[in-house]
Amino acid sequence: MPAYKKPVSVLVIVHTDDLQVLLLERADHPGYWQSVTGSQDQDETLLQTAIREVKEETGLNALCYELTDWHMQNQYEIFQEWRWRYAPGITHNTEHVFGLKIPKIAPISIATREHLRFIWLPWQEAAEKVFSWSNSEAIRLLGSDRQ
Question: CA 65 to CA 93: how far, in whole Å?
């Protein structure tokens, strides 16, 4: 039996104190920029998923910084091109939003099988550059009173 992805994921907005936001360009879709994302593994808490995904995708140890569950979730339709990763009949994913605040821009080690490159942008520019509405919405919250 194939191991399907669970339709539950995290979105982690990695940002500095002065609201520079880390974005990653998808390897499987050049031009698609996003924050750290990833599906929850079986028997893993959402917090554990966020910590694991940050480590896998950036090399950062989230436990060394301020990782916060924003207690927000989004539900969206999974793009047709990526549905093969999920069990038959699964069409939607529930995404849970976290923020990872670090003092200043830090060195990043991207997962080259997942991402082509990374950039740090001011939050306003980052919100415009990401391809996902939920990612854009979460980044825009950085400029509000959420911090």
Answer: 27
Q: Coil, helix or strand for 130?
A: strand
Strand 92-102 relative to strand 8-16, pairing? parallel
Chain-centre distance for alpha carbon 138: 10
pTM, to two decimals: 0.93
Could you tell me if residue 29 is left (phi over 0), alpha (psi between -120 and 50 degrees) or otherwise beta? beta
**Domains of the chain with CATH codes:** 8-142 (3.90.79.10)
* Segment holding 115, helix H or strand E: strand 115-122
Q: What is the pLDDT of residues 114-125, one digit of tens each?
A: 999 999 999 999
Among the listed residues 136, 138, 145, the one whose alpha carbon sits nearest the alpha carbon of residue 100: 138
Q: Fill in the DSSP letter of residue 41.
A: P
pLDDT tens across 68-110, in order?
999 999 999 998 988 999 999 999 999 999 999 999 999 999 9
Residue 9 corresponds to which amino acid?
S
Q: What angle do CA 58, 133, 146 make, to 5 degrees?
A: 70
